[in-house]
Design brief:
heterodimer; A: mainly alpha; Cytochrome C Oxidase, Chain A; 2 domains; two-stranded antiparallel ribbon; 2 strands; about 0% strand; globular; disordered C terminus; B: mainly alpha; Cytochrome Bc1 Complex, Chain D, domain 2
Chain lengths: ~550, ~290
C-alpha cells in the first residue's frame, strides 16, 4: 500500500511517527490515573505500528518516476475500505442503541455500554468514521481527475487519512471511557481536537498544492464544494473547541464559552457541520459521480454556481434555529429562521441540478442500482432540506423540537442523502480503483439498494409518526387547563415506533454488510482485471516540475 | 481551448470545458429559482420589519409588532392561571370532604392528578400507582402512614426518612444481622408472619413453629406492628395480615427483611410541588384505592 513512498518520505514518515509516539508517551506519563493514560498508550501503539510498517518497506527500492504518470490512488483505496468498516461498525452501534430504546436492559451492566456513551459512538462512527473517510478518499480521487494532476506527494495523503482515523478511534474509545466535552458532534476532548486540527491543515494544503498544479484552466465545481467543506470545518472546529484543559495530564477541559453563548457557538458549529460536512462535502461527491455514472453533462453550470454561493452564505446564519424559544435573544432566532427559509432555494436548486442531469439517462437509473442510489440520494436531499427549512420556522419548531421528528429529520439526511450518495459513489469508484470491469455482484448492489431504501423509509416514517404524536401529547390540555398526558404516557405511545425504527435501522445495517461483502469480494476476485485506461492519467509533468497552464 | 458543443438531448450548449469526461451545460438558471429566492427574501424582509431581527450594537430592532418571547410566555402563563383559577381557588379553599362531595371538582382532581402522578411519582410507584419491588402499591386501602387524604398529603409533603425536618421516620431493625434474634427464632417468626395472611402455609409449616413464632413476635414486634399485627400508621409499620407486601411475602423475602431490616425512602415534595398540586395528588390517590384483600 505505501510502497510508493520515496526514500526521503520514508524518513519523514519515521520522524513524524516517532514524534506522535513521543506525544503519546508524554500524555501517558503525565496522566497518572486519568483515562487519558489509556489514550496516550493507544497513540503510542498506533505510532509504533506505523514505524514497523515503514521499516518493513524501508529498504525496498525507490519507486521510479514512472509513478508520476499515474494518479496516486493507494490512499483512496485504503480510505474506501476504512469507510466501509466504520459504516458496518457505526450502523451496528446505531441499531443497538435503537433496540436499547425499545428494551432498556438490552445491554451490558457496564459504564461503556450505557446509552449515553454508545449514542455518540454511533454518531461519530457513521458521520466522521464512515462519512469522513468516504469524503477524504473520494476527494483525493476527484481532485486528481478534475485537475489532471497527481497528488503533490505520497506522504501527506497517508498522514491525513491515517491521522484522521486515529482521531476517530480516540473519539470513540474516549466516549466509552467517559471522556467527552458534552458538545454534540464535537464530543472529543482537547488533545484529540488539536490532533485533528493538524491533520485538517495538512488536508487543506494537499488540496491547494494539487489545485495549484492543475492542468485544467478552471476548477471543477466538485472541488469548490470539497474545499468549502475542508475550510469551513477547520473554522468551526477551532472556534467551537476553544477550551482550557485542567492540566496536560487530564482529559478534561473547560470551554471558553458558557451559558447561552456556549449554546449558540455549539449550534453554529453543529448546524454548519451538517452544512459543510454532510452537505457541501457530499455535494462535491455528487457533482463528480452523478455525471460520470450517468454519462450526462451537468444540467446547469450556472445553477451549480449560484447554489454553491447560496448554500455557503445562507447556512452560516442558520444555526440559531436549534435554539428557538430558549434564553437566546429572539432577534438571533429570527435571523436563524429567515436565513433557513432562504436556504431552501439553493438547496433545491442543487437537488434539481442533480436530478435534471439524469435527463436522458433515466433508462440507466432504472437498470443500474448504483445510479439509482445517487438518484434517490438527490431526492432525499430535496426532502430533507425542505423539511429542515420547515422545522426552522419558529411555530413549527415549537411542536417538533425535542421530539423524534428531529431524529427522523437527521436520519432522512444521513441515511437517505449522505449514505446513499456515498454508496453510489463507492460502487462507482471500486471497480475503477481495482481495475475490475464491474462489481463482484451487481445483484447484491441491487439487494443493498432495496434494503437501504426500505430501511431509510421505515426509519423516517416511524420517527415522523413518533415525533408528531410526542409533540402533540406534550402540548395537549384537558378541559381543566392542565396537561392531559404525563411524559411517561408519551413514552408508552412511542414504543411501537421505536420498534419500527430499530427494524428500519436493522435493514439499513444488513444492507451495509451486504455492501461491504460485495466490495471485499470485488477486491479479492481478480478474474476480470481491466487494462489501465490511457485517458485516466494525469497530464505528463515536463522536466519533473508542474507547469501551470495560463487561464483563458 | 474551450470548445462548446450542443447537447442533443436538451438542445443546450455546453460551457466548453471538460473535466475527466464531465461536461457542463450552459443552461440558464430557471426563472423559478430567482422567483422563489425573491419570495423568500421578501418574506424575510417583512418578518424582519415585524419581529425583533437585527442587532444594533447594544440593542436590536424591536419589530413593528412589538412582540417579545418573554412577554408572550409571561402573558400566556398568566392567562392560563386565570383560566384555571375558577377551580384552583375552590380546591385550595375547601376541605377534602367538601371536594370529595363535589363531582365537578373530583373530575378535575382525577384528570390533573393522573398527569401529576405520572410526571412525579410513577418513576417509583409505577404509572398506575401499583408499586413495585420496594415501592408500595398505592391503589390499596393498606397505607403505611395513614390512608386518609390529610395523611397522604402530609406524607407527600415531608417524605419518609427524607432530609425534610418534619420527615416521617421509621426503621425496621435488622433482627438477624444485629443478633437481636437467633437464626432459628427468625425462621419461627417468619412461619408465624406468613400464617397471618396466607392460611395455605399451614401445610408446609409445623404448628409448633408458628406458635413459638407468635410468642417471639409478641415480645419483639408488637411495639410497632401492634398486638394484632395489623400495623400502626403512626410509626409507619405495615399491616402483616393482608396480602399487600412492599418487599414480598414469600418465606425468603420475609427472612431477608427480618435478617437485614428495612428502611424505605421517599423524598419530600414540599420544595417541588405546590400545596395545590399536593392536595390534588392526595385526592387523586385516595380516590384510586380499592379495598385490600
Amino acid at each position: 500500500m505505501i510502497g510508493q513512498l520515496t526514500k526521503a518520505e520514508r524518513q519523514y514518515a519515521l520522524l513524524i511517527l516517532l514524534g506522535i509516539g513521543l506525544c503519546g508517551l508524554i500524555l501517558g506519563i503525565a496522566s497518572k490515573d486519568d483515562p487519558l493514560g489509556i489514550h496516550g498508550a493507544l497513540i503510542g501503539i498506533a505510532a509504533l505500528a506505523g514505524v514497523f510498517k515503514v521499516i518493513s518497506i524501508y529498504y525496498d527500492p525507490e519507486p521510479d518516476d514512472e509513478r508520476l504518470t499515474r494518479y496516486y490512488d493507494d490512499p483512496t483505496k485504503f480510505g474506501i475500505i476504512l469507510a466501509m468498516i466504520w459504516a458496518v461498525f457505526g450502523l451496528f452501534i446505531g441499531d443497538w442503541v435503537a433496540w436499547l430504546l425499545v428494551k432498556p436492559d438490552f445491554t451490558f451492566d457496564a459504564g461503556w455500554a450505557s446509552f449515553g456513551r454508545l449514542r455518540p459512538v454511533h454518531t461519530t462512527s457513521v458521520l466522521f468514521g464512515f462519512g469522513g473517510n468516504a469524503l477524504i478518499a473520494t476527494s483525493y480521487y476527484v481532485l486528481q481527475r478534475t485537475s489532471r494532476a497527481r497528488l503533490p506527494d505520497q506522504l501527506s495523503p497517508w498522514f491525513v487519512l491515517l491521522g484522521y482515523n486515529l482521531f476517530c478511534v480516540l473519539a470513540v474509545t474516549g466516549y466509552m471511557m467517559g471522556i467527552t466535552q458534552s458538545k454534540e458532534y464535537a464530543e472529543p476532548e482537547w488533545y484529540a481536537d488539536i490532533w485533528l486540527l493538524v491533520v485538517w491543515v495538512v488536508y487543506f494544503a494537499i488540496y491547494l498544492r494539487t489545485l495549484a498544479r492543475r492542468k485544467e484552466p478552471h476548477i471543477y465545481v466538485a472541488n469548490w464544494y470539497y474545499m468549502a467543506f475542508i475550510l469551513v470545518i477547520a473554522i468551526l472546529h477551532i472556534v467551537n473547541n476553544l477550551a482550557v484543559p485542567v492540566s496536560f495530564g487530564s482529559a478534561k477541559s473547560y470551554s471558553l464559552f458558557s451559558g447561552v453563548q456556549d449554546a449558540m457557538t455549539e449550534w453554529w458549529y453543529g448546524h454548519n457541520a451538517v452544512a459543510f460536512f454532510l452537505t457541501a462535502g457530499f455535494l462535491g461527491m455528487m457533482y463528480y459521480f452523478v455525471p460520470v455514472r450517468a454519462g450526462r453533462p451537468i444540467y446547469s453550470y450556472r445553477m451549480s454556481i449560484i447554489s454553491f454561493w447560496g448554500i455557503t452564505f445562507f447556512y452560516m446564519w442558520a444555526g440559531s434555529h436549534h435554539l428557538h424559544y430558549t434564553a437566546l435573544p429572539q432577534w438571533v432566532q429570527t435571523l436563524g429562521m429567515t436565513f433557513s427559509l432562504m436556504l431552501l432555494i439553493p438547496s433545491w436548486a442543487s437537488a434539481a441540478n442533480a436530478l435534471l442531469t439524469l435527463n436522458g439517462a433515466w433508462d440507466k437509473v432504472r437498470d443500474d442500482a448504483t445510479l439509482r442510489f445517487m438518484m434517490v440520494a438527490a431526492v432525499f436531499y430535496g426532502i430533507t432540506t425542505f423539511e429542515g427549512s420547515f422545522l426552522a420556522i419558529r411555530s413549527v419548531n415549537s411542536l417538533s423540537h425535542y421530539t423524534d421528528w428531529t431524529v427522523g429529520h437527521v436520519h432522512a439526511g444521513a441515511l437517505g442523502w449522505v449514505a446513499m450518495i456515498t454508496f453510489g459513489s463507492i460502487y462507482t469508484i471500486v471497480p475503477w480503483l481495482w481495475k475490475r470491469d464491474r462489481m463482484y455482484s451487481p445483484r447484491l448492489v441491487e439487494v443493498h439498494f432495496w434494503l437501504a431504501l426500505a430501511g431509510a423509509v421505515v426509519y423516517v416514517f416511524a420517527m415522523w409518526n413518533s415525533g408528531i404524536i410526542q409533540g402533540l401529547m406534550w402540548r395537549t390540555y384537558n378541559e381543566s387547563g392542565t396537561l392531559a398526558y404525563s411524559f411517561v404516557d408519551s413514552l408508552i405511545a412511542m414504543r411501537p415506533y421505536y420498534i419500527a425504527r430499530a427494524i428500519g435501522g436493522l435493514l439499513f445495517l444488513i444492507g451495509g454488510i451486504v455492501g461491504a461483502y460485495n466490495i471485499w469480494m470485488t477486491i479479492k476476485t481478480e478474474s476480470k482485471v481491466l487494462p489501465e485506461s490511457g485517458a485516466d492519467a494525469p497530464e505528463p509533468v515536463l522536466g519533473g516540475e508542474a507547469v501551470l497552464q495560463p487561464g483563458e | 481551448m474551450a470548445v462548446e458543443e450542443r447537447d442533443n438531448y436538451t438542445g443546450y450548449l455546453t460551457t466548453g470545458h471538460e473535466w475527466n469526461g464531465i461536461k457542463e451545460l450552459n443552461t440558464p438558471v430557471p426563472r423559478a429559482v430567482y422567483f422563489f429566492l425573491l419570495i423568500a427574501f421578501v418574506f424575510s424582509v417583512g418578518y424582519w420589519v415585524l419581529m425583533p431581527a437585527w442587532p444594533l450594537g447594544v440593542s436590536y430592532t424591536k419589530g413593528l409588532l412589538g412582540l417579545d418571547q418573554h412577554n408572550i410566555v409571561r402573558d400566556s402563563l398568566k392567562r392560563a392561571a386565570l383560566g384555571r383559577s375558577a377551580w384552583t381557588k375552590q380546591i385550595e379553599a375547601k376541605s377534602y370532604q367538601e371536594i370529595q362531595a363535589d363531582p365537578a371538582l373530583m373530575k378535575i382532581a382525577r384528570q390533573t392528578g393522573r398527569t401529576l402522578f405520572g410526571d412525579n411519582c410513577s418513576v417509583c410507584h409505577g404509572l398506575y400507582a401499583q408499586g413495585g419491588h420496594g415501592f408500595p402499591n398505592l391503589t390499596t386501602t393498606s397505607w403505611l402512614w395513614g390512608g386518609n387524604p390529610e395523611a397522604i398529603a402530609e406524607t407527600i409533603r415531608v417524605g419518609i426518612n427524607s432530609a425534610h425536618p418534619d420527615s416521617r421516620t421509621s426503621q425496621m431493625p435488622a433482627f438477624g444481622h444485629d443478633q437481636i434474634l437467633q437464626s432459628a427464632d427468625v425462621d419461627k417468626v417468619v412461619a408465624f408472619v406468613r400464617s397471618l395472611s396466607d392460611p395455605s402455609t399451614a401445610k408446609t409449616t409445623k404448628p409448633r413453629d408458628v406458635d413459638a413464632g407468635k410468642e417471639i413476635f409478641a415480645t419483639n414486634c408488637t411495639a410497632c406492628h401492634g398486638e394484632d399485627a395489623k400495623g400502626r400508621s403512626d410509626v409507619g409499620a405495615p399491616n402483616l395480615t393482608d396480602k399487600f407486601w412492599i418487599y414480598g411475602g414469600d418465606a425468603q423475602t420475609i427472612t431477608n427483611t427480618l435478617w437485614n431490616g428495612r428502611q424505605g425512602h421517599m423524598p419530600s415534595w414540599e420544595g417541588r410541588l405546590t400545596p395545590l398540586d399536593r392536595k390534588i395528588l392526595a385526592l387523586y390517590l385516595f380516590d384510586q384505592r380499592v379495598p385490600t384483600p
